[in-house]
Amino acid sequence: MTDNPLLAYGGWLAETPADWPDPAWAAAHRAFVDIVAVIIPGAVEPVTRLVFATVKDWGAGPAAAIGQGAQLAAPWAALVNGTAAHALDFDDNFDPAKAHATAVLAPAILALAEQEGASGRDCLDAYIAGLQILGRVGQGVNPTHRNRGWHATATVGAIGTAAACARLLRLDARQAAYAVSMATSMAAGFMSQFGTMTKPLHAGLAARSGVLAASLARNGLDAGLATLDGPTGMNRLMVGPDYEQLRDTLTHVEHGQNLRFETAQVGKPLLLLSSGLKLKRFPNCGSAHRAMDGLSDLLAAHGFAANEVEAVHVRAPVTHLNNLMYQVPEDGLQAKFSLEYGLACILKTGNATLADFTDEAARRPDFAPLYPRIHRHPVDKAEGEFPTEVEVVLKDGRRFETAVPWPAGSLARPFTEAQLWAKFDGCTAGLLPPDELAAVRRALADLPQLPGISALTRPLAGKFAS
């Protein structure tokens, strides 16, 4: 036993056997299906193409830069593919860390697995272990870390991804601790980048950092053992100098975010099962999803049209509304962080798809008149304390309302297998030749049994149609 979180995490990563319960293997498998579905269209996004154009001449290697027609060194492949994974904001959320977890974990694991010749089961094992540490670090600095403007996908994500890569490389306890520590020196990213190309780049940078930190540790680089909770550790630098006061005066804890690094029971509960992932129904910021689900439910139940609506009132946690900073979005990226735009999509089309978040779609003239009808009512409570309430007022005086505590795709409202694969089909249509797409689908379905990951990555290595 140790009170030092780095040593506790390193020991757990090195010594925990890969005998996860069947539901954990299944959940990890579903996460890979979902993220590969999202990476494929993300690979042709301008931000991903620009990142690839920047790194493509920096060294060839064994790992596919998905959709780019090139093989790169593992860190650069992780950078490109991580950016693609987050480019559309269609990737999952993970509450303990308040981060997009799979977008950073899976690209790093896949790139390193190609380099190392690891199996599909090895990848799933590294994912489960890395997600646990990602969550434990997130619980140690959140909710304050994220509420104060750090993008946890970039910060906590880099550290959790280093843990996953340490697991895949089978580092010993000290090396794994060094890898996790080293990643704190690569952990950075501000929420002020939301609505720009740098926001998805954060996921790519975190994926790259995980590969780099674990690889350096394997080759003998050491690191400090007080970078999480020392006098100048992550908690005091990236939460704040009032860290201890905040920790000691917490009155409500959500998702295990108690501003303490768990060291006694690192692996219990297994966060993949106790908290689960939030797979996304819509390709925009998850903070809008409860409201969009609620409006969808009211539309389905009552069948009103957009031109009948006098007002839509949304009562939601202030932290959700703060993430949705664009009330009148000017382009597709800003539209992803707009409550008004997301709800306008539901009112006008009954859905919100990838096609709704292009620059052209975001500027549709018939959407803007709806924005003033959508009213925000921030509630100073955490999301677990207060469900998002949606009230629709029609011009004829009728009122309909609902409350949504959990979005579709969450542990409480999981996707069916049919919904998961329907999302895959919707994301990938027209981007790969039919035979290659079929090969990807087969490899994903068989991922736990793949002796090597190339069956999945090979058909993804060509240049996709844009």
Question: Mind explaining what this structure looks like?
Answer:
There is one protein chain. This protein is an alpha+beta fold and 466 residues long. It folds into two domains: 5-280 and 426-460, Orthogonal Bundle (2-methylcitrate dehydratase PrpD); 286-404, 2-methylcitrate dehydratase PrpD (60s Ribosomal Protein L30, Chain: A, 2-Layer Sandwich), CATH 3.30.1330. Helices cover 48% and strands 8% of the residues. It is built from 21 helices and six strands. The protein has helices at 5-15, 22-42, 46-55, 74-87, 102-116, 120-141, 144-147, 155-168, 173-184, 198-218, 234-238, 243-248, 271-274, 289-302, 318-323, 332-335, 339-349, 359-362, 417-428, 434-445, 454-457, and strands at 60-65, 70-72, 309-317, 374-379, 388-394, 399-404. Strand 1 (60-65) and strand 2 form a beta hairpin. Helix 3 runs antiparallel to helix 4, helix 5 runs antiparallel to helix 6 and helix 5 packs parallel to helix 8 (155-168). It is globular, with a radius of gyration of 21 Å. The model has no long low-confidence stretch (mean pLDDT 96).
Quaternary structure type = single chain
CATH architecture level-2 label of the largest domain: Orthogonal Bundle
Order of helices and strands: HHHEEHHHHHHHHHHHEHHHHEEEHHH
How large is the radius of gyration?
A: 21 Å
Counted beta strands: 6
Q: Low-confidence parts lasting 5 or more residues at pLDDT below 50?
A: none
Query: What is the CATH topology assignment of the largest domain?
Result: 2-methylcitrate dehydratase PrpD
Q: In this structure, how is the largest beta sheet organized?
A: 4 strands, mixed
Average predicted local confidence, pLDDT: 96
The CA-CA distance between the termini, in Å, is 53 Å
Structural class: alpha+beta
Physical arrangement of strands within the biggest beta sheet: 4-3-5-6
What is the 3D form? globular
Number of domains: 2
Question: What share of residues is helical?
Answer: 40-55%
Q: CATH superfamily of the largest domain, please?
A: 2-methylcitrate dehydratase PrpD
Q: What proportion strand? A: 5-15%
The CATH first-level class of the largest domain comes to Mainly Alpha
The tally of helices reads 21
